[in-house]
């Protein structure tokens, strides 16, 4: 059974689940498979995955907007799928600077393209096959002699990716405010990696009696802040802000929609391992001169528009929604309402 | 209560789908790896056949992943002439397209590469015909894609046999305006060096 979710994936990536990293010091250490990628290449290769993570963080922030003037407490579990667009199957990989100089090295690709220099499209973590750049050095003087053929890491041909799951506590306040809190911490190479989210929903329509006496409709403002950190190595934050509106129908079904702006920023830093010979025997100056990998974490996504529905049956509320975003996403969840007073 | 049970069943089904469903995920990690090898010959008589043994255990990427290899393939084979010294009317001439003007047409009729894991069964990797040294001199423009049938056969062997031998077969050499090589006779090449890139793809379990 292929059962992976991003929580596990995060664990895999950040906690050496697939031996990407090996623990020896406080620094995150990246082992062999990615040793020969430059920082820029790693950034491009993983950007769609960070987009999936970002979109997962900023999903399931709310359901209906009709927050009542009561205290309430609930627990929600949510998940979903992201549909990976073809445009995120490739990234632009940098080639060694010397590849531009034909007096130092000649290059080609298997499709017959000659004088390949600057950049080349290669698969991201969700993409397909990579393209080898063949190179023949024209002399044996260091560092020109390092200009050898380059092979690249391949993608996993993933069209649909499981979303970041959320397990969150929900507290409702009489101010028609709802607070959602997510938290977990796990050891990553003997140093704790901590994740938390704070999500605030505030009903607005009642303040200005926007919908008059109609109590079936609600309009609310929502905002969220997420943090994933491990010092040293990972410092990622994400945010979302938007408006959501809902309309309740007689038979218990509530439809909701939202427009949301969101983003992610941060930095990833690690130490490249591998034998000295392996690291030195590469055309990339960065790899020869430094063991540090450092890149900014980014997401392709900046906004989403979603439509959803929620259905309440006693203490249980079910919801599902579909959002148009950089990676179109379908989310669903259920909420156990423990009490309302 | 029946409604609640139904709702719970629906939710559970959705989560089951979510957890086990249609996601082709990161169960494996795939990477390409280029194995470079070269052969250097002194006073070699051609036509000739030479062998070069490759042990993938010499490569860290292979050693680190060999217990988890799910699939391995040979994808491409690239061949070029790195250096050549030839005999011309009794004197040794270093082939250098940037200096020599008298290096017009030195060619092998063919150069053929094959791979064997047991010295009994050979799988052809690539055959390069009319190998004009000028066209093959230090350039990466002669890339052969390994035929699918060969890939599949080699794939199984490669999973369990990290040591293999590459056989290089050089035909007769022709040197333009020279008496040598005009017949099907053997000639002596004072120095000859070629290089190849063998591109492998490994899929390893995570």
Task: Write the topology of this structure.
The complex is a heterodimer of chains A (341) and B (206).
Chain A: H1 6-14, E1 29-30, H2 39-57, E2 72-83, E3 90-94, E4 105-108, E5 119-123, E6 134-137, E7 160-162, E8 166-173, E9 177-188, E10 191-203, H3 205-208, E11 217-230, E12 234-248, E13 253-272, H4 276-280, H5 285-289, E14 292-296, E15 303-313, E16 316-324, E17 329-340
Parallel strand pairs in A: 1-13
Antiparallel strand pairs in A: 2-7, 2-8, 2-17, 3-5, 4-6, 8-9, 9-10, 10-11, 11-12, 12-13, 13-14, 13-15, 15-16, 16-17
Chain B: H1 2-20, E1 28-46, E2 48-55, H2 60-65, E3 69-88, E4 91-94, E5 106-116, E6 122-132, H3 133-136, E7 143-145, H4 148-160, E8 163-170, E9 173-175, E10 187-205
Antiparallel strand pairs in B: 1-10, 2-8, 3-4, 3-7, 3-10, 5-6, 5-8, 5-9
Structure description:
The complex is a heterodimer of chains A (341) and B (206). Chain A is mainly beta and 341 residues long. Chain A is 12% helix and 45% strand. Chain A has helices spanning 6-14, 39-57, 205-208, 276-280, 285-289; strands spanning 29-30, 72-83, 90-94, 105-108, 119-123, 134-137, 160-162, 166-173, 177-188, 191-203, 217-230, 234-248, 253-272, 292-296, 303-313, 316-324, 329-340. The longest helix of chain A is centred in the N-terminal third of the chain and has 19 residues, at 39-57. The relative contact order of chain A is 0.21. Mean pLDDT of chain A is 85; it is low at 1-24. Chain B is of the alpha+beta class and 206 residues long. Helix content of chain B is 20%, strand content 51%. Chain B is built from 4 helices and 10 strands. Chain B has helices spanning 2-20, 60-65, 133-136, 148-160; strands at 28-46, 48-55, 69-88, 91-94, 106-116, 122-132, 143-145, 163-170, 173-175, 187-205. In chain B, strands 1, 3, 4, 7 and 10 form a 5-stranded antiparallel beta sheet that branches. In chain B, strands 2, 5, 6, 8 and 9 form a 5-stranded antiparallel beta sheet that branches. In chain B, a hairpin with a 2-residue loop joins strand 3 (69-88) and strand 4 (91-94). Chain B is elongated, with a radius of gyration of 25 Å. Chains A and B meet through strand 2, strand 4, strand 6, strand 7 and strand 16 of A and helix 1, strand 1, helix 2, strand 3 and strand 10 of B.
């Amino acid at each position: 059974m292929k059962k992976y979710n991003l929580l596990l994936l995060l664990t895999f990536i950040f906690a050496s689940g697939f031996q990407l990293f090996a623990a020896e010091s406080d620094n995150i250490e990246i082992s062999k498979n990615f040793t020969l990628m430059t920082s820029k290449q790693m950034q491009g290769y993983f950007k769609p995955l960070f987009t999936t993570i970002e979109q997962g963080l900023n999903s399931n922030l709310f359901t209906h907007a009709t927050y009542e003037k009561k205290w309430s407490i609930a627990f929600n579990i949510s998940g979903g799928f992201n549909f990976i667009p073809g445009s995120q199957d490739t990234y632009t990989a940098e080639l060694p600077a010397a590849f531009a100089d034909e007096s130092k090295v000649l290059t080609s690709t298997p499709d017959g393209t000659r004088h390949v220099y600057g950049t080349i499209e290669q698969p991201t973590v969700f993409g397909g096959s990579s393209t080898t750049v063949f190179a023949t050095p024209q002399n044996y003087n260091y560092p020109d002699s390092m200009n050898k053929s380059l092979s690249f890491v391949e993608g996993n041909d993933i069209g649909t990716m499981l979303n970041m799951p959320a397990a969150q506590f929900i507290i409702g306040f009489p101010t028609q405010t709802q607070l959602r809190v997510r938290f977990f911490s796990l050891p990553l190479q003997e140093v704790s990696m901590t994740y938390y989210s704070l999500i605030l929903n505030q009903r607005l329509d009642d303040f200005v009696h926007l919908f008059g006496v109609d109590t079936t409709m609600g309009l609310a403002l929502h905002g969220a802040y997420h943090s994933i950190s491990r010092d040293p190595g990972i410092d990622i934050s994400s945010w979302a802000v938007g408006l959501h509106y809902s309309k309740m129908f007689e038979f218990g079904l509530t439809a909701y929609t939202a427009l949301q702006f969101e983003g992610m920023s941060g930095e990833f830093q690690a130490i490249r391992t591998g034998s000295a010979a392996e690291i030195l025997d590469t055309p990339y100056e960065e790899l020869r001169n430094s063991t540090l990998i450092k890149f900014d974490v980014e997401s392709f996504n900046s906004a989403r528009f979603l439509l959803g529905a929620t259905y309440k049956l006693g203490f249980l509320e079910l919801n599902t929604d579909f959002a148009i975003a950089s990676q179109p996403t379908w989310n669903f969840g259920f909420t156990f309402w423990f009490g309302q007073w | 209560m029946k409604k609640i049970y139904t709702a719970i069943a629906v939710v559970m089904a959705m989560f089951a789908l979510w957890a086990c469903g249609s996601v082709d995920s990161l169960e494996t990690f795939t990477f390409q790896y280029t194995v470079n090898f070269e052969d250097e010959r002194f006073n070699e008589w051609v036509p000739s056949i030479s062998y070069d043994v490759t042990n993938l255990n010499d490569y860290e990427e292979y050693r680190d992943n060999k217990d988890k290899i799910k699939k391995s393939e040979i994808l491409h084979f690239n061949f070029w002439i790195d250096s050549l010294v030839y005999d011309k009317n009794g004197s040794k001439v270093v082939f250098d397209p940037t200096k020599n003007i008298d290096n017009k047409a030195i060619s092998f009729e063919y150069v053929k590469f094959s791979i064997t894991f047991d010295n009994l069964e050979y799988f052809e990797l690539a055959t390069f015909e009319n190998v004009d040294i000028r066209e093959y001199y230090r350039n990466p423009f002669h890339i052969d894609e390994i035929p699918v049938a060969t890939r599949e056969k080699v794939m199984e062997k490669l999973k369990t046999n990290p040591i293999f031998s590459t056989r290089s077969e050089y035909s007769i050499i022709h040197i333009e305006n020279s008496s040598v090589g005009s017949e099907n006779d053997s000639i002596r090449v004072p120095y000859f060096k070629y290089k190849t890139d063998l591109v492998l793809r490994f899929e390893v379990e995570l």
